[in-house]
Amino acid sequence: MYEGPIQDLIEEFGRLPGVGPKSAQRLAFHVLTMDAADAERLARALVAVKEKVRFCVRCFNVSEQDECRICRDARRDPSLLCVVEEPRDLMAIEKTGEFRGRYHVLGGAISPIDGVGPDQLRVAELFARLGEEDITEVVLATNPNSEGEATASYLARTLKAMEVAVSRIASGLPVGGDLEYADEVTLGRAFAGRRAL
Amino acid sequence: MPLYREQGVVLRTYKLGETDRIIHLLTPGRGKVRAVAKGVRRPGSRFGGRLEPFSHVDLQLYTGRSLDIVSQAELITPFDRVRADFALSACGSTMVEGADRIAQPDERSTELFLLLLDGLRALVTAPEHPSLVLDAYLIRLASAAGYHPALAACASCGRPGHHAVFGISAGGLLCPACAPSGSQPLELAVVELLGGLAGDPWAGLPARLAACPDPHRVRRQAGALVSSYLTYHLGRPLKAWEAVPR
After folding, report:
1. Nearest Cα to Cα of residue A139 among A188, A108, A99, A172
2. Averaged over A115-127, what is the pLDDT?
3. Is B15 part of the contact surface with chain A (CB cutoff 8 Å)?
4. CATH match for B3-78 among 2.40.50.140, 2.40.128.20, 3.40.640.10, 3.40.720.10
């Protein structure tokens, strides 16, 4: 057990996800050896993220203003809406440069076994947007795991009744992978979603 | 570290670190097994989609200190149709949650394992009646766990007959002499459906329901009784049951 601020810092780092006691100690001692200016910059960044960052009132992406950069961008296609689970998923899609519509961040996925239903997510806000905005297609980009599929299935059923086109991102083989090592579910989906050339 | 091989059904998964998952499996030989699947969340993982909930898999694992580690996984039945539909997924989640609650580590669970496989197969083959299959699974799960409800005789005095009062704490139907005063009797159709849920072949369940006078209402009443019965004996309700469309 260390004393004073260094122990406090170890305990604070130890509360972060994926950081065990040894890693917390390593990080704390790294901070101790940093330049004072670097340590101050880190401290300011931590405070700023809590003070300045909030959720976009429209899509629930992280933002510094009421509306995020993507919602404010008039060049984005307003008729296309991509539904994702978390802001991190949004950033992953943005990095592809393939999607020019707008987003809606649900804040998680439906997981009956964890007691997470549509009411715990921003599903009502999604349906409200369809009434207010000129959206013609909703792309469901939830994760291709059991929770993401359940969420996509639930949303697709409700959205189809609202007379909007609904699509699901494709799933299949990763680029650079080998067919022989692919599992049956993934390979089956790759075949089901094959496209004409 | 000793290696072993087991079949299993994936009950649930938890994220671990950046790319790993903790997997809860129901195995026939070792009961509930908790194991780590390393790198399974990476798109190019060697496990791919094999270790998703409901998957029936053939696994090679090695024994760890607190958690075992999955070294190889082969799919036997993916049950991916259960994951692809919200109603089936909610029913399947309730099934695996029940199995997860009852199964114990290092305890042979062949009956629980086969029951879960039968239930998942029935969900896939009769997807138009998922909550009916779920109720049948739950009442059979209670039986497998040692809480078989008395449905052909009084749970208290053993008098034979399809009695009309269901005593949850008594463990089944109660005859008029044993039923507490003021008990609300069940309709005969509900009593008969409960018997069907507990003992009919899986494929015969839709026909049993269709023969009821008001199938929707009778199924709701029977389902609510099954849920209350299991909740009483498990000590708390199954979370996923609330999400099941009825």
Report:
1. A99
2. 93
3. no
4. 2.40.50.140
Contact B54 A146 (CB under 8 A): yes
Interface predicted TM-score (ipTM): 0.80
The segment(s) of chain B belonging to CATH 2.40.50.140 are 3-78
Q: How far is CA A30 from the centre of its chain?
A: 30
Q: What is the pLDDT of residue B1?
A: 61
Region(s) of chain B under CATH 1.20.1440.120: 81-243
Q: Cβ–Cβ of B12/A144 closer than 8 Å?
A: no
Residues of chain B with pLDDT under 70: 1
| CA atoms B125, B128, B134, B140: torsion sign | negative
Query: CB distance A185–B49 less than 8 Å?
Result: yes
Continuous segment of H or E residues that includes residue B172: strand B172-174
B75: nearest CB among A112, A145, A184: A184
Report phi then psi at A131, rounded to 5.
-75, -30
The answer, for B27 touching chain A at a CB cutoff of 8 Å, is no
Q: Which two tokens stand for residue A148?
A: 């993401």
Q: Return d(Cα B180, Cα B167) in angstroms, integer.
A: 9
Mean pLDDT of A46-63: 94
Q: Residue A163: which pLDDT band, with cuts at 50, 70 and 90?
A: confident
Binary contact (B18, A185; C-beta < 8 A): no
CATH 1.20.1440.120, applies to B81-243: yes
In sign, the C-alpha dihedral spanning B11, B12, B16, B19 is positive
The DSSP bridge partners found for residue A111 are A116
Please give the domain boundaries of chain A with CATH numbers for all domains.
5-52 (1.10.8.420), 74-168 (3.40.1360.10)
Q: Check A186 against B47: CB less than 8 A apart.
A: no
A191 touches B at CB < 8 Å: no
Nearest to B173 by CA among B193, B190, B199, B191: B191
Chain B residues within an 8 Å CB radius of A146: 52-54, 83, 89
Measure the CA–CA gap between A73 and A78, rounded to whole angstroms: 10
Q: Is B19 on the interface with A (CB under 8 A)?
A: no
Task: Say if the Cβ atoms of B49 and A18 lie within 8 Å.
Answer: no
Q: Which amino acid is at A95?
A: K
CB of A114 closer than 8 Å to CB of B239: yes
Residue count (chain B): 246
Percentage of chain A beyond pLDDT 90 is 75
Amino acid of residue B118: D
